């Protein structure tokens, strides 16, 4: 997942935190495209890899997300994120010719419960759902221990097993807060997708790649989703909506029934009609300024 993970719990459940981190570490060892011992790293390198329970489930979910988003969630964008932009490694700016020639096709991936195969020139990147997946597995563990006052946060993917207060970072200035709210239900997922610190040289070269155009998206700078559905689902759907055409993105989010708050690249803030079902005391900060 290559991100900061925090787990907070009340004093009664504090002794479970280490086990929660251990679960997330196991998932990282399975899904990482950076760790040479991880199944997904081996799949990208060798075109074939054995799968464990975590990697098989993640690929199965990714196949469902691909269908549910009309192909806007596609883990085979790894040929762009890993090979061309090389996010998280020796980053560079990809040329238009390189992007046009990149092989992005979910059909390049075949897998079953035991193993996966990948066509030449294709690469898998689970960054669009892996953090949410890890949060879900940790949350399952805490639920099994009847631990309720727990918050699991993997960068923009958060699970609050009880009521909590959330602040969303401004996409325009790292130290500013875009908005804040309090949740009104137990066991809610909150996911924010955007170009936060994940770009090369400028936000025009961000990590949110439209798999159809093979280019970084530019319509949205921040999408926050709130719902009871799994954090993996929220992670994937926020990623997909971030690269959809604007009209399609809003139709997609409305059909999901999730609460959403979207900051467009033109500075307009759009709040979905369902947000009041999950939140209260929503505060939009007046420090919001569009990036010059």
UniProtKB/TrEMBL annotation:
Transmembrane segments: none annotated. It comes from the Bacteria. Its cofactor is Mg(2+); Mn(2+). Keywords: FAD, Flavoprotein, Magnesium, Metal-binding, Transferase. InterPro entries: ApbE, ApbE-like_sf. Magnesium. Can also use manganese. SUPFAM superfamilies: ApbE-like (SSF143631). Its EC number is 2.7.1.180. Mg(2+) binds at residues 128, 235, 239. GO terms for molecular function: metal ion binding; transferase activity. It catalyses: L-threonyl-[protein] + FAD = FMN-L-threonyl-[protein] + AMP + H(+). It is an enzyme of class 2 (transferase). Belongs to the ApbE family. This is FAD:protein FMN transferase. It comes from Sulfurimonas crateris.
């Amino acid at each position: 997942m290559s991100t900061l993970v925090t787990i907070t719990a009340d004093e009664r459940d504090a002794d479970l935190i280490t086990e929660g981190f251990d679960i997330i570490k196991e998932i990282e060892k399975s899904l990482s495209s950076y760790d040479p011992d991880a199944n997904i790293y081996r799949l990208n390198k060798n075109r074939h890899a054995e799968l464990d329970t975590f990697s098989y489930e993640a690929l199965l979910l990714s196949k469902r997300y691909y269908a549910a988003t009309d192909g806007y969630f596609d883990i085979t964008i790894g040929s762009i994120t890993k090979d061309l932009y090389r996010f998280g490694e020796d980053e560079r700016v990809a040329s238009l010719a390189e992007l046009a020639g990149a092989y992005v096709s979910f059909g390049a991936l075949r897998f079953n419960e035991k193993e996966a195969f990948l066509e030449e020139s294709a690469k898998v990147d689970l960054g669009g759902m892996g953090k949410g997946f890890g949060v879900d597995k940790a949350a399952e563990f805490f639920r099994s221990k009847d631990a309720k006052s727990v918050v699991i946060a993997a960068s923009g993917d958060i699970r609050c097993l009880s009521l909590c207060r959330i602040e969303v970072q401004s996409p325009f200035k790292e130290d500013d807060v875009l908005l804040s709210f309090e949740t009104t239900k137990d066991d809610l997922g909150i996911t924010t997708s955007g170009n936060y610190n994940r770009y090369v040289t400028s936000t025009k070269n961000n990590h949110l790649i439209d798999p159809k155009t093979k280019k970084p998206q530019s319509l949205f700078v921040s999408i926050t989703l709130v719902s009871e559905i799994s954090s993996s689902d929220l992670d994937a759907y926020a990623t997909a909506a971030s690269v959809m055409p604007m009209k399609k993105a809003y139709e997609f989010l409305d059909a999901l029934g999730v609460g959403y708050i979207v900051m467009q690249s033109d500075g307009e803030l759009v709040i979905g009609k369902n947000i009041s079902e999950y939140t209260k005391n929503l505060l939009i900060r007046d420090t919001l300024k569009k990036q010059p």
